[in-house]
Amino acid sequence: MPNDSRPRVLLVEDSPSNALVYRSYLEQDYEVEVVHTGHDALQSLSATSFNALVTDVRLPDMSGLDILDRMQKEQPALPVVVITGHGSVDMVVDAMQRGASDFISKPFDKARLCVTLANILKEQKLKAVVEEYEKTFVREQFHKMIGASLPMQNVYRIIESASKSRASVFITGESGTGKELCSEALHAESNRSDKPFVAINCAAIPRELIESEIFGHVKGAFTGASAAREGAALRASGGTLFLDEIGEMPLDLQSKLLRLIQSGTFQPVGSSKELKVDVRFICATNRDPLLEVQEGRFREDLYYRLHVIPIHMPALRERGNDIMLIAHSLLLQYAKDEHKAFESFSPDVEQFFMQHSWPGNVRELSNVIRNVVVLHDGKIVEMSMLPDLRAASAGLPRQPGSEIPGVSKELPPSQQQPSGPKTGDNTRSELKAIIPLWLEEKRIIESAIEKCGGNVPKAAAFLEISPSTIYRKKQQWEKMDSLRASV
């Protein structure tokens, strides 16, 4: 008695004898329907639901690849196995590119066909389970954060678990990964969501003012203090204080922050009176905090006070399809803001976005899309609209002929030895041509990145440094460029 729970397979084979043999291979485990022409196959596929399609390439009225193309449009989830007695590498590649699940060359035995079908159907079941899981448990957005990737799902779960606690949270991640959005989500999920959320960027405040920004000051505490001012700690009382780029905080101020975390008390600048506050601390850095401790730039006792619940924000290049998920959201948002008609990206742009390393992470992606929306019009973003991402990341023009260290033996001009003694005007001219070490280092690293097609990890490998070193130096260069521009 046939088992109705068996998977249904449509077998398309123009040779009756071959069809009989293949059917005998499968009928023990599958409910098999056999047809001999492409026309009959398309009729059966439209009338009946099948779990898999096995088709010969050469049929009397059409090619099996034509049936494959039709199924990719009408039933893309249907697994298709292509068989032929005239297989070639080109045909295999063509079939797989068109969406075939597998390709079998004649002659083949029972084991080859049965194992192929069993693996395909097993994979199909696993995909169904994953899709069901994603529909039920995977979130594409959590507060202001967008992302359905596994790393982001982990971030969401940690936020939900840690939000109700008073324990300090230490967020790490490269610049532009959304550390502040993570801190805002922690506050929004907490029992303090109706109380203030105060954010301080320790890197954006001058060293001499940061203590006043956090702890406040009394009138006359220092030159220019014409009135008393509440600090961030007092304003955040009952709520959350977010200290971004905490690695930039001076060591002497770190000791005062440690006291605030331990006792909940502090003294405003210029005051002898202690104030008590109830604050939940969240901090963030784009540096390696343990390395900062080891090198003496961050207090070890403060690190362990703050590093109770660590959250790592993944780099955009590690988040797979989140790149396009975020890109579409930003495109629609900016198109609305700028009153433009943009709706989507061309396939070439999507492929480029997925392959680009995004050293600036979500912030870089956001800047690129806003640039396109502001400067162009249309419904679809084309490759011609994109800014040159490599040029945009370069601070200075590159010198032609420079080579990647480790790839070419030729030294940059500034490192070549002079051919003979120089005096007078020639010496003064060459002295003027000497540039700061950080600029020369910047030129070499950016030249390496350019020659590696914008791939930072690849360039780092050639330069024999870590990618994180390049990203950290990029931030330092931005600060140095700003200082030079202000002089």
From TrEMBL:
InterPro entries: AAA+_ATPase (IPR003593), AAA_lid_NorR (IPR058031), CheY-like_superfamily (IPR011006), Homeodomain-like_sf (IPR009057), HTH_Fis (IPR002197), P-loop_NTPase (IPR027417), Sig_transdc_resp-reg_receiver (IPR001789), Sigma_54_int (IPR002078)
SUPFAM superfamilies: CheY-like (SSF52172), Homeodomain-like (SSF46689), P-loop containing nucleoside triphosphate hydrolases (SSF52540)
Keyword Isomerase: no
Domain Response regulatory: 8-121
Sigma-54 factor interaction domain residues: 145-374
Residues covered by region (Disordered): 394-427
Biased composition (Polar residues): 413-424
Keywords: ATP-binding, DNA-binding, Nucleotide-binding, Phosphoprotein, Transcription, Transcription regulation
4-aspartylphosphate sites (modified residues): 56
One Pfam family in the UniProt entry: Sigma54_activat
Name of protein: Sigma-54-dependent Fis family transcriptional regulator
